[in-house]
Design brief:
The protein is of the alpha+beta class and about 1050 residues long. It has 33 helices and 33 strands. Strands 7-6-10-4-3-13-16-15 form an eight-stranded mixed β-sheet, with no helix packed on it. A five-stranded mixed β-sheet has the order 18-19-20-22-21. A four-stranded mixed β-sheet has the order 31-28-27-33. Bound molecules: zinc ion (ZN). Its cofactor is Zn(2+).
Length: about 1050
């Protein structure tokens, strides 16, 4: 899934949020995939405090369920789930043996089956089961409060979130009939299963479906017989139990047949309703699916866990005026009744349920064929199909790239990309039918921005990478989600840098790592591979750690092993595990025999480096698994402190963690692949730091040394003594002596060190002064990412004087660069993005040359009734200025309603949110929440944008509190959208009064939100903001006084 859209006013320039932290919308980055949907995007000139992004505390275990008889408690949840373990079902507990039949899988019963013939065993079992299930013993009933009860109050025979392992689905035949008038659907699911243990209870998932009938079919051909199954439903676990009159026989094929019906979902998951308005104003309805991670069960009863891979034959019934598309190509269409057509799709490859997809709509499409003969099509609503060409070409190019790179052919004959008018995240990788937000796929050549092009390319690249990483090879359980998402995020950069070199995506990679580190520096973060159990916990790990940290540690490994060695390792992994499921260790084992490019292979599968010019370079061996376990199994990342004494470079590693100064040391150690350059040599030197301290000896003394070259490593570096002074001097003198990535990483690291008290705020601010001469996009963006949050905090604390001085300092710092900007769309993608951001910054802060020009453009645009074509790079600044007066605001809103361009709509949305008029801001919240004229999918971005507005933030916080229950219903507890909204409305607070108010509200929610990771994140962030302001605010005020003369 592409987490980008995590809300996000992903204005044209914001789609990048998917790939790039935009300085003006830092708030959006706070959760880059906050979970799900990774991107954020709202570009308000408001900033959260990036350095204070919170870690992601884990949810508490799911409620524990007591076993029925003994009073002994069986807890499910992370503790019982054994993260990373291959066991799908926790060990049977004593009560499992006593209450209910599914527990027939207990060890006692198994011992019977070993010693007796099958028939005898079956008989014994069924007799025992009848005893146990038909007449539930009184000692079971005595614990009524804790033992699962089905919705009809009968005992429910399974008390775990995870399904039992002994019923295995092999093939699904789905027939689904959707009625877009009544907004209902019905269908029949036939699932071929086998049993690996005798049992008469089949547990599977079903959520919000009515099931009038279920049956079990035995045998094949003419010998088939069918018998009814009793159905029990247990909504708390989203499960049903099908009870057979007698146990299934091991090894025989059975088919369960379930008739069911449901309503199209009003949310963004399951089989859900979407609408759009035609140019003529007619509202049309379609139905689409979003199943990842746990919503396939809302569309058909199924074994809804990623390890239960099966094949699917799908039939969809629809009206003749619509079309249906699904994972596989259409085989035939049959008229089954008057006005009712049934489409039959080809049988799928073996795959997980969360990748199934189908859409019934009136979409149009455009298609092309790849070199290897795969038909690629883009589907969209008819009025926007002319915006599909860019994505179509990108998809063809990227699919061809991946087939070549992975050396594994794409296994289906087609790939459809569909733009859905209502979509919660950025995109979804359903096999053969990827789905997208319209703004993540459709490109309007006239109106779309440079960042929109970059964002669309990256999103398509991400979803197509998943066709291998995720679809072909799937994580066994959601605890290893990073194997899907970290790789897909990483492959975005690998593929697009080759297929679209003009986009220079590699420049933006390190920003992903900064983004992840802000969350990962908090005490409440979690390891990359982390236990999860229930649906809310599963949704929560669609976050920065799974996506961005995952990608960053893979990049670090690639840098260390060499690109070719790394590639051969992942190809080996994909080939070995095709159509299977994997765990963390399977990846490292595949890498174990791969050596660094300049290494030599040893018999034990490890590698050793050859001689190296650096005296300390020679390492004893390379154990990929041990090294990478330090990055995936423990949380956080290291701070590496460098002290230079003559030719000796002393290195020390410790856990980089924010929080009170007296927090205890964690004692974590990493295998850190260090890289460095010096004033005497720009060739990259390497050193694997495995111990707490070490020393390396340089051939000669140097003036400066810079570690983590190009930010390829996932760690922060502190330079003791005059190390920072040397680097600041270098930047002020000849900043081009090091790369723009290195300059950006110095800016980032300096401010990170301020927040843990290792560097003074004055020194960090001094370092930014060189930006007066900077022209490259990433160091400028990084500077803004560090500086804007500071005045954002001041805005919420009534510190007008210093706040005004600080903003003047910022504009003064960048004024030369702002003045150089042309008001055109000329230049490379990065030059265009820089222009868009700088002009917006300048205009929002009332830099008069900018404001006057923007006012002129807005006037002309308004006089032409919006038909004047503005350069897309300057449109945001023009709209932001135009929206400042009520007449301009109303005009912009009228254009919003009729615009067919996602970029333009996002730009207008952003502009509407920065007005200092409370009534209009409240109206925006109300309208976007309602969803009639502004789609509800935009609500998280609008809420967050208004939270960044100095006048609007109390309204946003109030709105969140008053509508919490409805928000959770629509966007789902644990989703990245909810996290995005929680963080967005609260993480810039920096007073104790606000902290108490936030704590009080969330604790009052109890199980409906108090345990969310994002709540812990935001509380930790506010605490950090308070400490930061207490420590640094006065120093900033004094520093500004001293700097004033120099800059102005
Ligand atoms: Zn993804």
């Amino acid at each position: 899934m592409f987490c980008i859209p995590k809300g996000v006013l992903r204005p044209a320039w914001a789609p990048i949020s998917a790939t790039l932290r935009l300085p003006l919308l830092p708030h959006c980055f706070v959760n880059s995939c906050l979970g799900n949907s990774d991107v954020c995007s709202s570009p308000l000139p408001g900033f959260p405090f990036p350095s204070y992004r919170l870690g992601l505390p884990r949810l508490d275990p799911a409620p524990s369920a007591s076993a029925c008889s003994s009073g002994s408690t069986f807890t499910f949840g992370p503790g019982a789930a054994k993260a990373g373990s291959s066991s799908v079902v926790p060990e049977p507990q004593p009560a499992d043996l006593l209450c209910g039949e599914a527990r027939g899988s207990s060890s006692k019963m198994i011992s019977l089956s070993i010693k007796r013939p099958l028939v005898t065993m079956s008989f014994l079992l069924s007799s025992l089961l009848m005893l146990l299930t038909a007449a539930t013993p009184s000692w079971c009933q005595s614990s009524e409060t804790t033992s699962p009860k089905a919705s009809n109050r009968a005992p429910f025979p399974w008390n775990k979130m995870r399904l039992p392992e002994h019923i295995i689905p092999v093939h699904y035949d789905l027939m689904i009939h959707v009625n877009l008038t009544t907004l209902t659907f019905g269908g029949t699911t036939e699932i071929e299963i086998t049993a690996s243990k005798p049992t008469s209870t089949i547990i599977l998932h079903s959520h919000h479906l009515q099931i009038p009938k279920a049956a079990l079919r035995k045998g094949a051909g003419e010998k088939q017989s069918e018998e009814p199954l009793r159905v029990l439903e247990y909504p708390p676990q989203e499960q049903i139990a099908l009870l057979a009159p007698e146990p299934l026989v091991v090894g025989l094929p059975y088919t369960i047949v379930i008739d069911y019906a449901g309503n199209l979902s009003e949310s963004f998951h399951g089989f859900y309703k979407s609408t759009y308005r035609t140019k003529e104003g007619e509202v049309r309805i379609l139905a689409s699916t979003q199943f990842e991670p746990t919503a396939a069960r809302m569309a058909f009863p199924c074994f809804d866990e990623p390890a239960f891979k099966a094949s699917f034959s799908i039939k969809i019934r629809r009206e003749p005026r619509h079309i249906a598309i699904s994972n596989m190509p259409l085989v035939k269409s049959v008229t089954v009744a008057e006005g009712l057509v049934e489409d039959h799709f080809d049988v799928t490859v073996k795959m997980s349920t969360y990748l199934v997809a189908f859409i019934v709509s009136d979409f149009k499409s455009v298609s092309k064929i790849t070199k290897s003969g795969i038909k690629v099509s883009v589907y969209a609503v008819p009025d926007k199909i002319n915006q599909a060409d860019y994505a179509l070409d990108a998809a063809v190019t990227l699919l061809e790239f991946y087939e070549d790179y992975f050396s594994i052919p794409y296994p289906l004959s087609k790939q459809d990309l569909a733009a859905i008018p209502d979509f919660q995240s950025g995109a979804m990788e359903n096999w053969g039918l990827t789905t997208y937000r319209e703004s993540s796929l459709l490109f309007d050549a006239e109106k779309s921005s440079a960042s929109s092009k970059l964002g669309i390319t990256m999103t398509v690249s991400h979803e197509l990478a998943h066709q291998w990483f995720g679809n072909l090879v799937t994580m066994e359980w959601w605890n290893d989600l990073w194997l899907n998402e970290g790789f897909a995020k990483f492959m975005e950069f690998v593929s697009v840098s080759v297929t679209h070199p003009e986009l220079k995506v590699e420049d933006y990679f390190f920003d992903k790592c900064f983004n992840a580190m802000e969350v990962d520096a908090l005490n409440s973060t979690h390891p990359v591979s982390t236990p999860v159990e229930n649906p809310a916990q599963i949704k929560e790990i669609f976050d920065e750690v799974s996506y961005e940290k995952g990608a960053c540690i893979l990049n670090m490994l690639r840098d260390y092993l060499g690109a070719d060695a790394f590639k051969s390792g992942i190809v080996k992994y994909l080939q070995k595990y095709s159509y299977k499921n994997t765990k963390n260790e399977d990846l490292w084992n595949s890498m174990a025999s791969i050596c660094p490019t300049d290494g030599t292979q040893r018999m034990d599968g490890f590698c050793s480096r050859g001689e190296h010019s650096s005296s300390h370079w020679r390492q004893e061996g390379l154990d990929v698994k041990t090294m990478m376990n330090t990055w995936t199994l423990q949380k956080g990342f290291p701070l590496v402190t460098i002290t230079v004494r003559g030719r000796n470079v002393h290195m020390k590693q410790e856990h980089f963690v924010k929080g009170p100064d007296d927090a205890p040391e964690t004692g974590y150690l990493w295998h850190v692949p260090l890289t460095f350059i010096t004033s005497n040599s720009d060739s990259v030197q390497r050193f694997l730091l495995k111990t707490r301290t070490d020393v390396l000896i340089l051939p000669e003394e140097v003036e400066w040394i810079k570690f983590n070259v190009g930010m390829s490593g996932y760690y922060i570096v502190h330079y003791e003594d005059d190390g920072w002074a040397s680097l600041t001097g270098l930047l002020k003198g000849t900043h081009r002596a090091i790369s723009s990535s290195d300059r950006a990483s110095l800016i980032n690291n300096a401010f990170q060190l301020v927040s843990i008290g290792k560097l003074s705020i004055e020194k960090a601010l001094d370092l930014t002064l060189y930006l007066k001469h900077e022209t490259e996009v990433m160091p400028v963006f990084q500077g803004l990412n560090e500086l804007i949050p500071m005045y954002r905090l001041m805005e919420k604390r009534d510190m007008n004087e210093v706040e005004t001085q600080f903003k003047a300092f910022l504009i003064g710092l960048l004024r030369d660069l702002i003045d150089k900007q042309t008001w055109t769309d000329e230049g490379s993608i990065s030059e265009r993005m820089l222009r868009s951001h700088l002009l917006l910054l300048a205009c929002v802060h009332k830099y008069q040359p900018c404001v006057q020009k923007a006012e002129g453009y807005f006037r002309q645009w308004q006089e032409a009734n919006g038909n004047l074509s503005l350069p897309s790079d300057v449109t945001l600044a023009v709209f932001a200025v135009g929206a400042q007066n009520p007449e301009g605001w109303d005009f912009l809103y009228s254009k919003y309603q009729s615009s067919l361009s996602s970029t333009e709509k996002n730009q207008i949305e952003f502009a509407l949110c920065i007005i200092h008029n409370k009534e209009k801001l409240q109206w925006l919240l109300d309208q976007s929440f309602k969803g009639d004229t502004i789609k509800t999918q935009e609500f998280p971005d609008i809420l967050r944008a208004i939270s960044r507005n100095p006048v609007g933030y109390p309204l946003a916080w109030q709105f969140l509190r008053e509508n919490w229950n409805k928000l959770v219903q629509k966007f789902e507890l644990g989703s990245s959208s909810i996290a995005y909204m929680v963080m967005g409305t609260t993480n810039q607070f920096s007073t104790r009064a606000w902290l108490e108010e936030v704590k009080e509200f969330f604790s009052s929610l109890k199980e409906n939100g108090s345990q969310l990771r994002c709540v812990q994140q935001t509380i930790e962030t506010i605490e950090e903001n308070i400490r930061w302001m207490d420590k640094n605010f006065d120093k900033i005020r004094v520093w500004l006084q001293n700097e004033k003369l120099e800059l102005l």
